[in-house]
Design a protein that fits this description.
One of its GO terms (cellular component) is nucleoplasm. By secondary structure, the protein is α/β, with parallel strands linked by helices. The chain is about 40% helix and about 15% strand. The chain has helices spanning about 5-10, 15-20, 35-50, 95-105, 105-115, 150-165, 185-200, 215-230; strands at about 30, 70, 80, 80-85, 125-130, 135-140, 170, 210-215. The mean pLDDT is about 95.
Length: about 230
Amino acid sequence: MSFKDDKEKFLKMTTDEKRKYYHTSNITTLNEVPTWCEYWQKNKERIDKQVNPKESDKTCSDDLAKKISMWQGDITSLEIDAIVNAANSSLLGGGGVDGAIHRAAGPNLKKECATLNGCRVGEAKITGGYKLPAKYVIHTVGPRGEKPEKLKQCYFNSLNVAKENGIRTIAFPCISTGVYGYPQRPAAEVALTTVKNYLQTHFDEIDRVIFCLFLKSDKDIYEELLQNIFN
């Protein structure tokens, strides 16, 4: 079967039909991922003590905050519309998140990626999700080192591709903070401010943006910044 036929087959399946093909039975649905408001209300006392002890009267009532999630887990287990792959410029797979996504999706993801003529830094391109719980994969290439404008383009262009394809739920890994060497906190600041600005102008077109974190240090950074940016 060609990758085109395989892609169409998976995209036409119901969720129950597709679950038979997942690489894992340990999936996470959107309903199992709390919004930032839900997470913050549950952990407010701890976060206040760690982050802003003088601002314990803060609340989480912003509608934008209800479209944001911070979640620790395996991005390939998320059963949502699309996950973002922190890819290399060839789009043919690699290490880290990139390799995990390709392994979980199966070989036809690489075959489809081979038809896309690569991807420049900051660009975003879409493929099917194949055997992933996510319907689609949006591939973006992050910058090497601290280049805020290029990293901003990764998040903005990924969201734009999502919007253009009717994708309403999307998850991002921490783009460029691994072997590409972008410092974690500045990268998180770019990610959160870019997503917030995008949602402010496209509020009705995206339902949820999930920041999928792996390291505890990323979790600590996002907890602090989310409170300051979205509360």
